Amino acid sequence: MKSNEQNKIYYEANGIVYHADTCLPLTDAFDRKKLDFQALARHSYPGKRLDENTKGLNSIGYWDANTPQDWGLDWHRNEGIEFHFLESGYMPYAQGNSETMLVPGDLTITRPWEIHKVGSPIIGMGKFYWVIIDLGIRRPHQEWEWPDWITLTPKDLDRLTTALRKNDKQVWKTNPNFKDCFSKIYKAIKQDNNGSSASSIRLLVNYLLLLILELTDKEDIPLNETLTDSSRSVRLFLDELENNLQNNWTVEEMANSAGVGLTRFTYHCKQITNLTPMKYLNIRRLEIAKKLLIEEPYSNITNIAYSCGFTSSQYFSTIFKKYEKCTPNEYKSKNLSTV
């Protein structure tokens, strides 16, 4: 974990830089006395500090909202696998393209690459827990590395890892043992004083993982091998690229962000898009530029070029003419005349 020049917290994995979630709406709601909130955490997560005895556990906590709320946690990812549990009340929850209303006893599982939000946009009233464990991975095809204090047998841990990697079920119905486990987590968090609950936290997280293993065994869920293929990691990166077209990407940087080697990244990109990475990048940038040329006709061509990730207006014009057979100004004039 490091701090950059803007004083924002970030961390690196496999040469990729990630910005950690700060849960600012939650801490703001707590400061305004909208709810009870406590957590043990590290990095930029809010709460009392975890010590080295629970290294790999990034955040464990709860909130208890028993009055109407006016906030929510917008779309975000975590740098670890996250388990949510709703003990009471109700909670609007969304993951990927799926939205649902959590009810008491629901457990959610989100992997590091899965975008999710709590609230739609406002959270409901309820008692809500979470546990975030860093597994040293950011993409679906990467091998998981559990903290060394996880005490499940190698065979059981392998079965759990396989079940969590090769299925994408989001919401699970639990049994009373889960409520018992999270109730004990609640007590351990409240009683902690400078790491005094570390042993209890370790035992309870192991108990939680054992319960999840038993749950996956009972559900007998089908395993999908394609969920751990490197092509999925590349596809996820290409989906994310839509929001990061302005970055000064090289093929090497794109491959690093996808978490795969250069040759493998180029192969998968061509299989998915029928284009080389740079051609795909330029075409996506051009699509945004064409939209801006029509929607913002008075914008400077250079500003549009830079906002879409092109390094100069000359290069933008060259690429634009290559694919559209006209200059940006000609394209704008032609399309505005038809509006």
Number of strands: 14
**Overall spatial form:** globular
The CA-CA distance between the termini, in Å, is 52 Å
The number of domains is: 2
The portion of residues assigned to helices is 40-55%
Number of helices: 11
Mind telling me the CATH class of the largest domain? Mainly Beta
What is the fourth-level CATH superfamily of the largest domain? Jelly Rolls
Could you give a short account of the major beta sheet? 7 strands, mixed
Gyration radius, to the nearest Å? 23 Å
* Helix and strand pattern: EEEHEEEEEEEEEEHEHHHHHHHHH
Task: Return the average pLDDT rounded to an integer.
Answer: 92
Portion of residues in beta strands equals: 15-25%
Spatial ordering of strands, largest sheet: 5-4-6-13-8-11-14
CATH architecture of the largest domain, by name, is: Sandwich
* Structural class assignment: alpha+beta
Q: Determine the CATH topology of the largest domain.
A: Jelly Rolls
Q: Which stretches of 5+ consecutive residues score pLDDT under 50?
A: 1-19
Helix/strand layout:
Blueprint (H helix, E strand, L loop, with lengths): L1 E2 L5 E5 L2 E4 L4 H8 L4 E6 L6 E2 L7 E9 L7 E4 L4 E9 L1 E5 L2 E5 L3 E5 L5 E3 L7 E8 L20 H12 L5 E3 L2 H16 L6 H22 L10 H12 L9 H8 L3 H12 L3 H19 L5 H7 L5 H12 L3 H9 L3
Parallel strand pairs: 4-5
Antiparallel strand pairs: 1-2, 2-3, 4-6, 6-13, 7-12, 8-11, 8-13, 9-10, 9-12, 11-14
Helix pairs in contact: 2-4, 3-4, 5-6, 5-7, 6-7
